[in-house]
Amino acid sequence: MNKSACPLDCYDACSIIYEDEKLSGDKNHPLTKGFLCPHLNHYEKHQRIQKPRYRGEEIGMDEALSILKQRVQNTQTSRILHLRGHGNFALMQGVSDHFFSSYGATLTQGSLCDGAGEAGILQGRGSNFLLSPKEIQKCDVVIFWGRNAHVTNSHYLPLIKDKSVIVIDPVKTKLADKAECFIQIKPHGDLHLALLLSRFLIIEGLEDSEYLEKFASEYQDYYELTQSIRIKKTLDKIDVTLGQIGDVLELIRDKRVAILVGVGVQKYRNGADVMRAIDAFGVLLGRGSGVNFLGSSTEGIVSPFNQKAPRVSVGNIEFGKFDLVFIQGMNPLSQMPDTNRVEKELKSVKEIVYFGLYENESSKAAELVIPAKTFLQKDDIRSSYGSNDLLKMPKQIDSDIGVSEYELSSYLCSAFGIELKSEREYLEYFESRLLHVKSRKERPYEDGFDTDDGEFVFLDELDFGFDMKRDFFLLTCKSPRSLNSQFYREKNVYINSCNGYLETQKVRIISENGSIELDVKFDDNLRKDCILIYSGTPNVNRLTSSKLSYDGLNAAYQENKVKVEIC
Ligand SMILES: Nc1nc2c(c(=O)[nH]1)N[C@H]1C(S)=C(S)[C@@H](COP(=O)(O)OP(=O)(O)OC[C@H]3O[C@@H](n4cnc5c(=O)[nH]c(N)nc54)[C@H](O)[C@@H]3O)O[C@H]1N2
Ligand SMILES: Nc1nc2c(c(=O)[nH]1)N[C@H]1C(S)=C(S)[C@@H](COP(=O)(O)OP(=O)(O)OC[C@H]3O[C@@H](n4cnc5c(=O)[nH]c(N)nc54)[C@H](O)[C@@H]3O)O[C@H]1N2
Ligand code: SF4
Ligand SMILES: [Mo]
Q1: What is the CATH number of domain 115-292?
Q2: Which residue puts its alpha carbon closest to atom 6 of ligand 3?
């Protein structure tokens, strides 16, 4: 029986067993409990890229590596970009950063994912530790604030058995259906809601003043800030009632509360403030309660790879500044915002190299395509943003297809005289961090914060940013069938049937950035003013803009107005 772990970018970081060429869940793992999810249950059915390709012609791996070397050699170092996503979340993926940084290439900063929320958390707490799954289990009430656990985080579901559940989401998710309280909030209304909840919590005297006096003593000033917004006007604007605020406060009165926040709430320009206001609400609840966002997965694991390099923001890279773009574990032509811009600028890049597992928009645009090995065919180890764990991923099988990240980086390092340690040394270093990771506090911030004075830093001014009026809000949540653009990709636009469109009718969706045509499917779990195009649907990002969050350099995917016309 051989143990490994799922390599995918997912809260659950499942522990897996590979036996008789089959993947299954590890029954002994506290979260996985013997179950995987459709992505891993069907993992080996997905057609991989079998052979390297140069300008459309299949070639051998030796030739592919030698072309890569030549191209790197012939390009001015400052005009090489290393663009790495999280198609595989494991730690040895970072070995290519070592080569490219040492060679003088440019890397990226910021995030397409959780960067704004993380910035908000860091501003408030000074660090981003996770409220652990074990501690969530000890709470009485769980608030899912823009996290769709049945789809993205299903292994947390057993933790909430027999608990009161509150859901705050513009979509009536499966959890919302069973929740004791469901607030079908207008998208982008979360900052307002968090402020109002905090204000009424204090009015009702439900805050933990003993904890606050010690570790968040500016809370009275924050209370004043929450008073600067008008109650009725704000509630109308975000489509929430006073009754719902009352319901939430009744459910959490004198209870231990876990607030599980997803990425949807923070994919806005003011995403850091949104997260900080939700976090503040968690802090006011005090000892015993807490907020679980995506915890910093590498806290305490200093990278052994050289990562010192000039960096550009991943959400709005100006590709025209580069002659060679090396893409690893990522599909920027689908997943970066503002595809029309990305596509146009990538056309001017002399050489695109794609290093990945599957064919997609980015592999098609590349001159040189190099297949990677799957996680079963290389040694690795992974950390997690949903649990304080490090899971070893030892190689299970040999394969003639592809190269590993270590093999490719080691080839380049030796070609250019850059020092690289053995693969074993890196793996052993990561393994040596296990105890440190396991010893992170299960319930951080019980005894203060990691800010300069040990106190939580509340927001001290408000910026709601964006007007809330529009034809439709564009939601681009995660699909149960895909992991962003990997696996089965969705192809429809989902609209509430009361909007007057017909099912299967082709419509044109138009934003300031572009337009796309898709067939309609009904989903009456959506608000009337929202349309949903799942992340990973081809072309969805032709509608989104390259605007970044004010803090955290995160792509603001949700900040787009769209119109829908019948074709
Ligand atoms: N099956 C599957 N699982 C995945 C992924 C996948 O693609 N597919 N992707 C993985 C990745 S990369 C990530 S980052 C995580 C993300 O995991 P989640 O954070 O759960 O992901 P989302 O589906 O983007 O958003 C969750 C919920 O936020 C809601 N939402 C959208 N806008 C707003 C808003 O303005 N306010 C509020 N309150 N809610 C809002 C959406 O309706 C949705 O129900 O999932 C990981 N797991
Ligand atoms: N509109 C909209 N856009 C979004 C989002 C959204 O919610 N809405 N979500 C954003 C978020 S949260 C994220 S995290 C990003 C994700 O966006 P990306 O980072 O582009 O992730 P994927 O679409 O999963 O593509 C990953 C690629 O990694 C490759 N890969 C898989 N395993 C390996 C491996 O072991 N080695 C190598 N070399 N390659 C491998 C596969 O070929 C796959 O094509 O998308 C963002 N884009
Ligand atoms: S739930 Fe997440 S970690 Fe578990 S098998 Fe599925 S994708 Fe992998
Ligand atoms: Mo993500």
Answers
A1: 3.40.228.10
A2: 37
